[in-house]
Amino acid sequence: MVDIYKANACDYIRFIISAVLLSLSIVVTSYAIVTNKTSFFDTVPGWSALLLFIVDMILLGIVEGLQIALVELKRQHPDSYKNSHPAAYRLGQEAAKGDNVERFLMGRQVSVVVLVFFAAKLTTIHASDGKGRSFLFPVPRWCEVALLETGFVACLTVVILAQLMPQIVAAKYPVHFLQFFIMKPTYYICIMVESTGLTHICWCLAALMEKVTHMQVDIPLNDSVDGHLVASEKLEQLHSSLDDIAVVSDSSAEGEDEEKLIISSDDVLTCQFSRFSCMLDVVKENFSPETLQVLKQYLDSHPEKFSQFPSVIGNKMYPAPQALADRFKKDGYPVPRFLMDISDPEHIPPHIIACELLAQNKNLQQEITILRKKLEHA
């Protein structure tokens, strides 16, 4: 995405050209609609046709942005916006059920095509009225055919304002976009359109294409319902196996694994070492490479799941955040906010804590330097 605050000279030139073309398109299209120089019904007053065009643009922008927002929403974990944007959370959860996404896409596509064709009916310009009178400004015949009657000029208004702009906003702010009250009714309208059966043959055609091209789902995606279920089941299997592990002593933790991993004598790390070793055994015995790929994709988009597992960096193992938080609770101390669950509103990302500590350390070093200089001059 182009950052307007970091745009270069070429970007600004294109901004200006695009703005001029869009302004010209809006003026020409609006003039043609108001003066009834389009293919729309002559019995409809020009101002009414212009109002219909504006409504059509708004509806088109909603359905275009809604699709992108639902797709981009999968990149974010639901718990991260569950409390702050409840409407977006509920809509995202509803769309993720069963084949609702496919049904929405079918109803949405029908709606988009109808709205686009209606906009085309409203904006197909006829510059010549057969009486020798010119358009808003003198237009050569080749220009009438190439730019006006083909719909190119009006196309700029529809594409930029009603399609691209909502899509870009929805891609950058999917949660905020879905929070608008109009999104939920629009979603269910698209579902209702699909329920009429107008596009039901698509299921048969899709199945036929899969058969002809020999397509098959080797590995369900992590964001799909199947992939989500597979990953969840495997994580539950890991959790159940880890819960059965007893805490081992420091002496039993050392020995054969001493050369592989360096762990402290703290009972938290000792327990984590045992859990980690058991987890590796479970993975080797029960998980196929395909399942591991599904699990990896799932964990990449659900970082909060990592809080229950230890971390290994090089030849050193560190306890899981949840294990440390449990230890704080057990000892009667408040849990630091960076160890809280990621879905907790009180949670602060660890890198924020690290940045703050670095800043404090820098300030401390500066104060030490100033004190040293004062002592030298004393």
Outline the structure in words.
- The chain crosses the membrane at residues 12-34, 46-71, 110-127, 147-165, 186-209.
- Pfam families: Silic_transp.
- This protein has 15 helices and two strands.
- It is an all-alpha fold and 378 residues long.
- It has three domains: 4-212, no CATH class; 225-340, no CATH class; 348-378.
- A two-stranded antiparallel ribbon has the order 1-2.
- A hairpin with a 2-residue loop joins strand 1 and strand 2 (316-318).
- Helix 4 (100-123) crosses helix 8 (183-195).
- The longest helix is centred in the N-terminal third of the chain and has 28 residues, at 46-73.
- The two termini are 57 Å apart.
- The model is unreliable at 219-227 and 245-265 (pLDDT under 50).
The whole-angstrom Rg is 31 Å
Estimate nothing, just give the exact number of structural domains.
3
The structural class is mainly alpha
Low-confidence stretches: 219-227, 245-265
Percent helix: 55-70%
Strand content: under 5%
Q: Which H/E pattern describes the elements?
A: HHHHHHHHHHHHHEEHH
Shape type:
extended
The number of helices is: 15
For the biggest β-sheet, the strand order reads: 1-2
Would you tell me the overall average pLDDT? Answer: 78
Query: Strand tally, please?
Result: 2
Keywords: Membrane, Transmembrane, Transmembrane helix
Transmembrane segments: 12-34, 46-71, 110-127, 147-165, 186-209
InterPro entries: Silicon_transpt (IPR004693)
Pfam families: Silic_transp (PF03842)
